[in-house]
Amino acid sequence: MAKDGLSGTLAVILHVDVAGSTALVQQDKQLAHERIQDSFRRFSDTIEKYQGRVLELRGDALLAEFTRASDAVSAALSFQVDHAYYIDRLKDDLRPKVRVGIAMGEVIIADSTVTGAGVVQAQRIEQLADPGDVCITAAIQEALSERMPIDLENLGEQVLKGFDYSVQVYRVELRPGKSIPPAEKSSQSVAPTKTWGLLVAVVAIALVVAGSTAYWYQFRVPQEEPASLERMAFPLPDKPSIAVLPFTNMSNDADQEFFADGMTEDLITDISKVSGLFVIARNSVFTYKGKAVKIRQVAEELGVRYVMEGSVRRVGNQVRINAQLIDATTGGHVWAERYDGSLDDVFSMQDRITQSIVTALSVSLTGQEQNSLDQVETSNPEAYNAFLQGWAYYNIGTRVNYKKSWSFFEEAIRLDPSYARAHGALAAVYWDAYINDWAFDLGIMSFDIESLWQKHLDLAMEIPNSLAYILQSRVMLSIGRHEEAVIEARKAVALDGNDAEALAGLANALVLAGRPEEGLRLIQNAIRLDPRHPPGYLIIFGTAEFGMGRYEEAISTFKRAVRHNPDNEIPLIYLASSYGHLGHMDKAENTIEKANDLRASLGLSYLSLEKSQNVNSPFKGGIDFPKFGTQSVQARLRTGLSQIPALTWQYVVNFHQGSSRWEVPGSTEIDIATAKAFHDKGVVFIDMSHPDIWAKEHIPGAINLPAYRGGTGPWKNLMKQTTLQEVVSKNEEVVFYRCGGVGHCGRGEGYSARAVNWGYKKVYFLVKGTITWKKAGYPVDSNQ
Predict the structure, then answer these.
(1) Most C-beta atoms within 10 A of its C-beta, which of 108, 443, 490, 542?
(2) How far is CA 767 from the centre of its chain?
């Protein structure tokens, strides 16, 4: 309380009132008391920060004085920004909103009572303000510096109760895109504010009267509980570490959830580009979405010092973002800010948040990083909106949601044809559909889908981002160009060193290129950035250990991978091989049986993994799997195929040692006479050869559907369910053959297994197709 004897002082008076406090108390007396107390405590802190002092609490109102008008206005705006964020986080409707009035006049303090014309005028001005607003008199407006980043709305001449003259009143609002000026340090000593014990007593008494029930409370400052360094799941990095929690959608429209998530992801992406920061990956922070978690818990589980949280409210074209950064080790707030603007301003709003983080954590940007942050992906807000909707569906990862994402990415590109990020995302959709055989689900001819992903990937590379480089690396791996895959993945990491997906992609490329030691270090970094990483990271980790000959460690890792994703057979096969290398044959055989059980559950029991069979792998140059049985054959791992596991390991069939024959139940070998009869009656022939071999010579009318990728470039019309479905129905007869060149023609039964698996009922194969056909004297066609 200001001391008596300061009466008759001319001052800037700030009056605060909690709007509708009686109704709040009637909802929940105790909770209303606590929240109003907290609001006054935070406002008092802000007042003191801006060189003001609290004079009195009057019921549910607060009175303070300042020497300078600019300090009073800055304090009021600062509190309202912080308070808006505070009430946005509340999960119920008990939200104490405050109104602020600021006037200039005489203050009289006598007998511990604060009165005077300035006090009354500030109170009357406050009553003209809407909840959440700040109103000032013309005298305050004239005293403000023109440099203050505010907009003033003239409310006209107002007649105030108790005054014989009208007063010009203005509503004050922070200018869009601007920040509240920081508090200036004062050389003058400031009298201490009254103790919070007395303040709380006053406000409690007033609220008790309003609620007709007596309550007394001892005030306790609510603040975040500090995180424990001892309980951290990981040691803190040697640079500022931060986790950005998913922003809360405050739009009262569930359909805007994608917008809040997209804003969060873009902020993570932006600050990830700053090498001076350690930024937790999207995958891990989004595990907290929709959950009531404490800052301490997040910091300890992810191993970070700083946690950022916020909310997004979008109404039509207007956007409001509230954000705050918390030092989890102290529980204190580093900063809190509100950003208002239209959808057109959303990119600059994101930039300001990023700059605020960089400034608050005293991080320096390199020239390249600043240029990267300044780069605008699109200037079309509607294209950005469409992209965010598509990205939300893409992250779900199912074929149904891929189809939904595809249409939104197409719309984003229609609105902005040069939107490189949208081209990259669309290329990723087409690529995933290509390797998973989902073209039919997208309503696209599989003959066209390869050219589509290549087209959009090329367009994305005009302004490449991490996503485009990662996809390019995956493409290179799929065709066995390991070193080029490493180069492309390194480009992704160079753009964003905090991108766990980029690090994991580079790790995978290095492991498969025969450099497992380098790959292991990188996948460890990726897991640290993404503690709640996808199960695939464990497969990369285990494969690196396997490639280094660290089989005991690989066994432990692959066991974890199986626990995380029991429906994936890849870690089971590597696990069995690791057991075999150590001579644990019983365990190896049991693990193979588990893989067979998994296949049987998918209706693929006749495609079992026998102890004697070959297993394809993507390692450069090949790695030997061990023998699983006394009559087994040693498998030399081939390049490139298991980048598409569903199209590789799914089609292994039983091999009979010594007979050079594969058994495919449901597929029949035919002789040349039967083949000619089938051909004459118009049965479809499928040539599985390399396109160059097929172009040179093939059985007349045979359709070329290559069995797998090879050579130096992508092929069209790979043998997949949709491509086969486009040329022959499941109830029609179909003959498969393959010729790998002069003197090297496959039998064809291994490829006919795919058709059997897809439900084709009349499947046949011709051994050494073209050569057998020519030896019988039948003509062949050529496309050369």
Answers:
(1) 542
(2) 50
